[in-house]
Amino acid sequence: MRDIVFTRSSGWIPNVIREDGELKLTLGAGADANHEPRTFTFPIGEAHLAVIREDLARHLLLWSAVLPLCDAAGTRGRLDENAAVALLDPILLAAPTDVDALFQHIRWDRSPLIAHGADIGLLERGQVCAAMRAATETSNGKRAQEYHADRRRAQRGAVLGPLDAAILRYTGQYLHGATVPRRIPDAVDPALLPEVMRVIATAEQACAGIRIGRDPRRGNRATDRRDWDRMETTVRAAVRRAHPELVDDAVRTVSFLMCSEAAERSRSTPVEDDEEAADHRADVGGSARKTALSFTDDKGVEKKWLRENPRTATAEFWEFVGDRSAADNEVFTIEDEEMGEGIQLHFYADSIARVTTLREGRGGSDPEYRVEYGLVDGIGAYRTLVSAFVRGGCAALEQHGPWMSDVAEFERARRRRDAR
């Protein structure tokens, strides 16, 4: 039989229950193997209950001291009840100076104390009882999160000024630098918002006209890492130059915001080569443009494109790559059967082969091909090569060489490039 004897308004503060006639403190802490909260109990006396009822500060201090014992129990272990019971008299019944001295020698969790209003300065000076005079039953979890975020920054030597903190709050990265940044002006002190917006304006001017393109080799929503790095470097340099007082965390979050927004704009734009689309609409026949193409991947999947298709060949091809590309599927081919030529893209090796039919197979003989290899510098270069082939075939690729027909020579060139 279990009855609740005493509870506070905040559900996580330990409760007092009576179980089979015995008083116990019960609290939820940690998690089991299924990530469900674990519940721990240990016996207390009537004198302890009296203090818990009347003294919120002592109640919270006991909670902060018991939590590390719960963590030590892990997902399946038992609470060390003897250690928990040994904390009762020294925390609930001892003089404040003795409580302060105890907390100098035991493990305790600051988070619940800070969330419930403890004075952080006094806590860090070891005056835990004095720190808890301002404690409230109402919890503010964000206050504890901010405290731990500040401690992590301090451990790596980053101390935020008011403008630095305001910029991190504006981007939503004050607590977690790995979250996707966004614009939250309401999170900033109105007095500091104009200064924050001046920093943001500096970043926007620096990256105006810079685009982060897609990289279909890594999926339909992936973006070009080189474009990202280029924008990031540009924005950081401009912000650092215009606002030298900012710490690295603030500069980083502004560049992260600019890059994230540019990447999202790219993801929401249809996969289309604008120049190719314009040429496609203007072309009424008689050009060297391909009229029918076949796309294949390394798994034998094929997709056809015809000139009547409302979308361009390049757009269709890169969408095909985005849909099919994977760690074990990194070779893609574009073939023009009518002209007897094609290109093969080797994403795993940053290289390309152009293949031209020299002689068709007749009378059971095999056809004869000329195969030439070239090195490719990133997704931007791949896009240029694909567009050139679609417009003018293998002949249009000549200017994008050098092309090597000797496989050994090509491998040496590839090794030299990779070594750099």
CA gyration radius, whole angstroms = 33 Å
Could you tell me the strand content as a percent range? 15-25%
Distance between the termini: 74 Å
Return the average pLDDT rounded to an integer.
91
Strand order of the largest sheet: 6-5-7-8-9-10
- Tertiary shape: elongated
Question: Which secondary-structure class do the elements indicate?
Answer: alpha+beta
Number of continuous helical runs: 17
Oligomer class: single chain
Main sheet overview:
6 strands, antiparallel
Number of strands: 10
Helical percentage: 40-55%
Low-confidence stretches: 273-287
Q: SSE order, as H and E?
A: EEEEHHHHHHHHHHHHHHEEHEEEEHH
Spell out the blueprint of helices and strands:
Blueprint lengths: L1 E5 L8 E5 L2 E10 L5 E7 L2 H9 L1 H18 L7 H6 L1 H6 L2 H8 L6 H6 L4 H5 L3 H4 L9 H15 L6 H9 L22 H15 L17 H18 L5 H20 L6 H9 L9 E5 L5 E5 L6 H12 L6 E6 L4 E6 L4 E9 L8 E8 L2 H15 L14 H13 L1
Antiparallel strand pairs: 1-2, 2-3, 3-4, 5-6, 5-7, 7-8, 8-9, 9-10
Q: Any descriptors?
A:
alpha+beta; 45% helix; 17 helices; 420 residues; four-stranded antiparallel beta sheet
Describe this structure in words.
The chain is of the alpha+beta class. 45% of the residues lie in helices and 16% in strands. Helix 10 packs parallel to helix 13. Residues 273-287 have low confidence and may be disordered.
Describe what is shown at a glance:
The chain has 420 residues and is α+β, with helices and mostly antiparallel strands. Helix content is 45%, strand content 16%.
